[in-house]
Amino acid sequence: MSKKQPASATKNLLQVSLAPFWKRLAAWIYDLLGGLAVFILALSVGLLIAYLVTLPWAENGAAVSSALSNNPLWLIYILACVQYYYVWCWVKGGQTVGMRAWNLKICRPNGEHLSWKEAYIRSIASIGGLGTLWCLIDKEKRGLQDLSCDSRVIVLPKGYGKEQKPLI
After folding, report:
1. Which residues does residue 91 pair with via DSSP β-bridges, in sequence order?
2. Going by DSSP bridges, is the β-strand pair 104-107/17-18 parallel, antiparallel, or unpaired?
């Protein structure tokens, strides 16, 4: 269940402009680094656990590495960790690290944060970032991921959110 923003915050968000393609692209590039960091962390934690569990009977690390690389659950675990990072950012604050750097925010048309369900739908629709190209031809500058969950990427006014808490 998502927390509703105060009416004044919603009113202010509705008066901002929609994000142009170049700002979305810049934020996406920043967010690739954030996703890569989560990927490396998930990989490290997963490998550590795998090595600790198999330590008594594994002769070398190659056996563990081979077992993980052939297991589809390993790939699902890594991708789910990266997906959860983006979903969590969108639900909790409407922004990822890259979006904060470029003063962008994802919200519903009424200014509220996305729900968990909407954020998961958006994350699936935005895999690869190709859906963002759709905003070049959409009159309302929405990408396919925005259309999938009825969200908007807006440009926040300068100075907005300077008093915000850090993401973590």
Report:
1. none
2. unpaired
Which band of pLDDT confidence, cut at 50, 70 and 90, is reported for residue 49?
confident
First to last CA, the chain: 20
Cα 52 from chain centroid (whole Å): 30
Helix axes 72-92, 116-125, angle to 10 degrees: 120
Tokens at 67, concatenated? 């077992």
Cα 144 → chain centroid: 15
Q: State how far the Cα of 144 lies from the Cα of 130, in Å rounded to an integer.
A: 9
Tokens matching residue 108: 């519903």
> Do the beta carbons of residue 45 and residue 38 sit within 8 Å?
no
pLDDT value for 157: 84
Confidence of residue 30 (pLDDT cuts 50, 70, 90): very high
What pLDDT was estimated at residue 42?
A: 95
The dihedral through the CA atoms of 54, 59, 61, 62 has a sign that is negative
How much is the mean pLDDT over the chain? 83
Runs of H (alpha helix) within 20-113: 21-54, 61-69, 72-92, 97-101
Res. 125: pLDDT tops 70: yes
